[in-house]
């Protein structure tokens, strides 16, 4: 596929992307860059990957027509049920693919970073499945607000390292994972959980998540008689579920792509993670992208009620989608996300993850009409957020 | 004409000591007094760290010093203001700025290089600047302002890549002693490490070599210097500054403990 939305040989989407890494990481990243396309295209890899997606992850995930939500918003809403994936979120699509890749690269040790814990759990799961050593870096703040996921990772045999540097959230967990990789350059593969990091990670993760939109097209043809919806909506922290949901629609200009960010207490409140509005071009974790930073180029600490969305950057593909006008960005505040949690739970019997709730909360702002087909990527389920939901019980009435 | 870095190597040849510290640490206005004290005490080159919120290649000691420096109010504008008078005080010692790309990008690369050159800076160590981006976007600017890039080499860096780096600079090559971030203990067996140092020494490169990462005392300095033209000390010096009531005095004492 030749598309302006594919990265060039050096990993750039327009001005965004690249591989800004210290020399200590160069051989690892080069090895991955030289081999990932070939490995992904290998029929033996694909056979094993597809079989695991089917029998282990539980794919294809359903595309569910949400009739009561549709009535509420006077449009046709379909939910892509990534929450029904094994481990409860789309994250496992990527970790299954990367563990197979790591095996083919001869790696024996796996490291990962995690915010909400969904990627950590998905990584710990596939490491257990393959009998590989697993170390997960997680900000100390996040280990506290996502305790059930910490316990799940430990039960799965992973070592969870609580990161106490910086803001003690996802950004710092990523820094520590990168430092681990620098210290263990030969035997270790770093499974990055989102479409961030140095090239080829953004492209690798997008490809492994693209199964989401591939299935959407087939399922839409079956259910509504056309492969193309009018809107695809997904939440964006780093942006992996959005990348997967958008992927096979990138070159279909009739499909409106909507990326939903966390505005926290309000975009300009000083407690926000709305990178597309507040960010400026800069370098974080090895790629040039939009990034929240001060005038001196120091990376600032984002805020969101959801641990999976409070990342100060976005993937370079998303930065490009925003800059080129291909995707529309909407920002949702904490309170509106909580309202969406209650609404989806009561109207459809589905308790969404806090991250996903941001995408649901954008429904009122889309401008979709009664004949429009809207697909929301229901990226994860809300079990892990139960403690937060209990804390805000009065807002969920 | 030789640059200041080449002059330093020509003058001494062996056992050169390059000391790193973070600008604005431990106190905002310690930068220039520390440069003077290190020079007086016999440091051959000085590496001034530009603090960054997310220093990927650095360990906890340097990250902590960066946090303190940022909290003290250090930024590139303050740093260049401080460095304005430094050459009058320290005419010969090579000065290098070390840091990450993002703050420089926000400042503006050309403006940064111009300010560095005006302050008398000789070289730049930017670990997350890729070679290809350097050659395509920044090499001409570095040349225009007479700044030498310093490239890092690790045990995994391919020989042809090392040779290519060697053609791109007239300063020195920075041999990362083994896997890990700054300040870490060297986990590799000494024999393996020595084989790597000797392999690089045997390449007959144009530029001299300094070994860094995990060098912290007289013993490790001498060992490292035995395999190259000298060594770089960072984290151990930062630790020595940590609770020092008089930072320049602590710097003089530290350099003496390495060289004497």
UniProtKB/TrEMBL annotation, chain A:
The modification N6-(pyridoxal phosphate)lysine is found at residue 91. GO terms for molecular function: tryptophan synthase activity. Its EC number is 4.2.1.20. The beta subunit is responsible for the synthesis of L-tryptophan from indole and L-serine. The keyword Metal-binding does not apply. Its cofactor is pyridoxal 5'-phosphate. Pfam families: PALP. Belongs to the TrpB family. Pathway: Amino-acid biosynthesis; L-tryptophan biosynthesis; L-tryptophan from chorismate: step 5/5. It catalyses: (1S,2R)-1-C-(indol-3-yl)glycerol 3-phosphate + L-serine = D-glyceraldehyde 3-phosphate + L-tryptophan + H2O. The keyword Lyase applies. This is Tryptophan synthase beta chain. It comes from Hymenobacter chitinivorans DSM 11115. Keywords: Amino-acid biosynthesis, Aromatic amino acid biosynthesis, Lyase, Pyridoxal phosphate, Tryptophan biosynthesis.
Automatic annotation (TrEMBL), chain B:
CDD domains: Tryptophan_synthase_alpha (cd04724). Signal peptide: none annotated. Pathway: Amino-acid biosynthesis; L-tryptophan biosynthesis; L-tryptophan from chorismate: step 5/5. InterPro entries: Aldolase_TIM, RibuloseP-bd_barrel, Trp_synthase_alpha_AS, Trp_synthase_suA. It holds the Pfam family Trp_syntA. Its EC number is 4.2.1.20. Keywords: Amino-acid biosynthesis, Aromatic amino acid biosynthesis, Lyase, Tryptophan biosynthesis. The active site is at 47 (proton acceptor), 58 (proton acceptor). It comes from the Bacteria. GO terms for molecular function: tryptophan synthase activity. One of its GO terms (cellular component) is cytosol. It catalyses: (1S,2R)-1-C-(indol-3-yl)glycerol 3-phosphate + L-serine = D-glyceraldehyde 3-phosphate + L-tryptophan + H2O. Belongs to the TrpA family. Tetramer of two alpha and two beta chains. The alpha subunit is responsible for the aldol cleavage of indoleglycerol phosphate to indole and glyceraldehyde 3-phosphate. NCBIfam families: trpA (TIGR00262). This is Tryptophan synthase alpha chain. It comes from Hymenobacter chitinivorans DSM 11115. The gene is trpA.
């Amino acid at each position: 596929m030749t598309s302006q939305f594919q990265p060039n040989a050096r990993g750039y989407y327009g001005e965004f992307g690249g591989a800004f890494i210290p020399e200590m990481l160069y051989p690892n990243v080069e090895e991955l860059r030289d081999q990932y396309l070939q490995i992904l295209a290998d029929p033996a890899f694909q056979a094993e990957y597809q079989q695991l997606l089917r029998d282990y992850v539980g794919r294809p995930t359903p595309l569910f027509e949400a009739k009561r939500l549709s009535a509420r918003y006077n449009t046709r809403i379909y939910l892509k049920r990534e929450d029904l994936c094994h481990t409860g979120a789309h994250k496992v699509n990527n970790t299954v693919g990367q563990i197979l890749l790591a095996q083919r690269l001869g790696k024996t040790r796996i490291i990962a970073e995690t915010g909400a814990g969904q990627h950590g759990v998905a990584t710990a799961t596939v490491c257990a499945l393959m009998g590989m050593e697993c170390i997960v870096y997680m900000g100390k703040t996040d280990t506290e607000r996502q305790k059930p996921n910490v316990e799940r990772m430990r039960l799965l045999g992973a070592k969870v390292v609580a990161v106490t540097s910086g803001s003690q959230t996802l950004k710092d967990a990523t820094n520590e994972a990168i430092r681990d990789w620098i210290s263990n350059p030969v035997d270790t593969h770093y499974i990055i959980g989102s479409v961030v990091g140095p090239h080829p990670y953004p492209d690798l993760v997008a490809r492994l998540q693209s199964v989401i939109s591939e299935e959407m097209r087939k399922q839409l043809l079956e259910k509504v008689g056309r492969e193309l919806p009018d809107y695809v909506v997904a939440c964006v922290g780093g942006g992996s579920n959005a990348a997967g949901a958008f992927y096979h629609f990138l070159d279909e200009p009739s499909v409106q792509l909507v990326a939903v960010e966390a505005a926290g207490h309000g975009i300009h409140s000083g407690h926000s993670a709305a990178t597309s509005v507040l960010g400026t071009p800069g370098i974080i974790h090895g790629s040039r992208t939009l990034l929240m930073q001060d005038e001196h180029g120091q990376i600032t600490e984002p805020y969101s009620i959801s641990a999976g969305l409070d990342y100060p950057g976005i993937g370079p593909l998303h930065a490009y989608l925003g800059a080129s006008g291909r995707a529309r960005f909407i920002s949702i505040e904490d309170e509106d996300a909580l309202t969406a949690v209650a609404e989806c739970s009561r109207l459809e019997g589905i308790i969404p993850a806090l991250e996903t709730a941001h995408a649901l909360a954008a429904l009122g702002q889309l401008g979709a009409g009664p004949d429009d087909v809207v697909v929301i990527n229901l990226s994860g389920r809300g079990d892990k957020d139960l403690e937060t939901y209990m804390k805000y019980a009065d807002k969920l009435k | 004409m030789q640059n200041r870095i080449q002059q330093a190597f020509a003058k001494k040849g062996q056992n050169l000591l390059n000391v790193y510290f973070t600008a604005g640490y431990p106190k905002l206005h310690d930068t220039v007094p520390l440069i003077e004290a290190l020079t007086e005490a016999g440091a051959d080159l000085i590496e001034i760290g530009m603090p960054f919120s997310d220093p990927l290649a650095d360990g906890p000691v340097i990250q902590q010093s960066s946090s303190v420096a940022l909290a003290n109010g250090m930024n590139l504008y303050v740093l260049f203001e401080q460095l304005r008078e430094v050459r009058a005080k320290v005419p010969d010692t090579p000065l290098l700025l070390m840091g990450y790309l993002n703050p420089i990008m926000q400042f503006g690369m050309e403006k940064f290089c111009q300010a560095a050159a005006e302050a008398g800076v000789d070289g730049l160590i930017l670990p997350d600047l890729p070679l290809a981006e350097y050659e395509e976007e920044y090499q001409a600017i570095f040349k225009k302002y007479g700044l030498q890039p310093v490239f890092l080499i690790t045990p995994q860096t391919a020989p042809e890549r090392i040779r290519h780096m060697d053609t791109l600079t007239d300063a020195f090559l920075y041999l990362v002693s083994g896997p890990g971030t700054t300040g870490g203990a060297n986990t590799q067996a000494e024999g393996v490490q020595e084989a790597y140092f000797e392999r690089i020494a045997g390449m007959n490169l144009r530029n001299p070599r300094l070994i860094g990462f995990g060098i912290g005392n007289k013993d490790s300095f001498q060992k490292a210097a035995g395999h190259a033209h000298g060594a770089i000390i960072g984290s151990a010096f930062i630790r020595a500054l940590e609770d020092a009531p008089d930072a320049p005095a602590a710097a003089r004492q530290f350099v003496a403990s390495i060289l004497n």
